[in-house]
Every structure is written in structure tokens, then in C-alpha cells.
Amino acid sequence: VSTQSTGDTMASTERHEQEMRQKASRALRGGVKNPIEMLRLQCLSRGASGIKGLGRAFRIMDDDSNKKLDMNEFKKGISDYGLVLEDGEIGDLFNTIDMDRSGSIDFDEFLRHLRPPMNKGRRELVLKAFNKLDKTGDGVITVDDLKGVYDVTKHPKYISGEWTEEQVFLKFLASYDTPNQSDGLVTKEEFMNYYSGVSASIDNDAYFDLMMRNSWKL
User: Fold this and answer.
1) 3-class DSSP assignment, residue 97
2) Residue 82, Cβ neighbours under 10 Å: how many?
3) CA 164 to mean position of chain CA atoms
4) Between the CA of residue 50 and those of 44, 73, 110, 129, 198, what are the distances in Å?
5) What is the per-residue pLDDT for 107?
6) Which residues have a Cβ under 8 Å from the Cβ of 127 and sit 6 or more positions away?
7) Helix 188-200 and helix 50-61: axis angle, to 10°?
8) Which of 101, 128, 126, 97 is CA-nearest to residue 114?
């Protein structure tokens, strides 16, 4: 298996994170009327893991583990995550998702609404990258999957002796995980969530294609 440098891919990842945060922040300053788009942009302005982080805030509040939120829980989750929406905007947002008017929303469904849409070609590229990394084919990328696919010897912190091979890999996986909640595992859903954010910052399909192929040597 040909190996590639984690340093190059990490640098590329960080650059796209920065572009995405800047683009989302600019769009917010320009004024957004649609409540779902406003919440999506506020999440993306925190980076590609922003939407996943909001999902985690909601899960913490789901005391009875029924994966549903009523209006008060929904409002508290948005507030606890530090997002800024007026009560009226939160109400509009809740009602947009609560289509059956049951008074509660399924938060996995809500997160799917929030995830920026990706066209078929982009989704296929992201899945191709995931499948390349998931050597064992168990649907989760781990440190063991990365060994033999990635060469850490050119990473500056490995060269300086500051990080071991395992630490380089864990840092690499943490890029795709929820901030401060990294478990060293990246699921297909997490990988898709991450790249839907990156995709939202890239208008041109050809550039997205090139970026994915260069990053993952597809």
C-alpha cells in the first residue's frame, strides 16, 4: 500500500476548516432570514465539528433517552451551546422541523436538516475516502486502520520527538471528531458530517473533487 504524509493531509484539513469558518461568518454578517440556515451557519462558523457538537449538547439534555426534544429542551440546548437566536426564530425553527405538530422533534432528523446538502458526486467521493481509510471494513476508522496507509515520519512533531506515531494518528482522527470529546474513533456519519461542512465552503465541484483526490490520493 502506498503511504502518504499525515502532515500534508492535516495541513489541508486545517486550511479548509479556516475557509469554512470565515465563509460562514461572512454569510452571517450579511444577514440571513431562514432560521435553519442561520443556525447552520452559526454551527459552521465554529468549524466542521460544530453541527456534531450541537447534537451532543442535545443528547446530554435528553434525560429519558427518547431522542426527542420539546420546545423548552430545544431552546435550552441552543442556549447551552452558545448559539444566538431570538425566541421567535427558535419557535419558527422548531415548527419547521416539527412537521406533524406533535410538540416534539427527533434530534437525529433535526441534525440531518442542519447538515449542509452535498450532491451525489461529492457524497461518493467522501465515501470513497472513508472506505480507503477504513481498512478493516467495520464502518469505523481507528489508529490501526491508519497504520500502513499513512506515513508519520514527515510530521514535524514526530521528527522532533514531541509526539509518538500513535499521538500523530490520534490528533489526525480528532480533526473529524467532536471538539474536546475525541474518542479515537471516526464513524462514517462523523466523516460525512465533517465533509458536508467542508463542502459548504467550496462552491466549485471540480475544486472539491481535486481537493478530495489530493488529500486522500484517490
Assistant:
1) helix
2) 11
3) 26
4) 6, 19, 14, 21, 12
5) 75
6) 188, 192
7) 130
8) 97
Mean pLDDT by 10-residue block, N- to C-terminus, for the chain (218 residues)? 58 73 85 82 81 77 78 86 84 86 83 83 95 91 84 84 90 73 79 81 86 82
Rg of the chain over Cα atoms, rounded to whole angstroms, equals 18
Residue at grid coordinates 427527533? 106
Dump the DSSP string for 161-175: TSS-HHHHHHHHHHT
- β-pair partners for 69: 105
Alpha-carbon span 54 to 76, nearest angstrom: 11
DSSP three-state, residue 187: strand
- For residues 32 and 45, give the distance between their C-alpha atoms in angstroms, rounded to a whole number: 14
CA distances from 120 to 70, 124, 204 (A): 33, 6, 14
Say which DSSP state 147 is in: B
Backbone phi, then psi, for 96, in 5-degree steps?
-65, -40
Place of cell 420546545: 71
Closest by CA position to 212, among listed 201, 203, 199:
199
Backbone phi, psi, residue 133, to 5°: -75, -35
Residue 42 pairs in a beta bridge with none
Residues 6+ apart with CB under 8 A from 144: 135, 136
CB count in 10 Å sphere of residue 149? 18
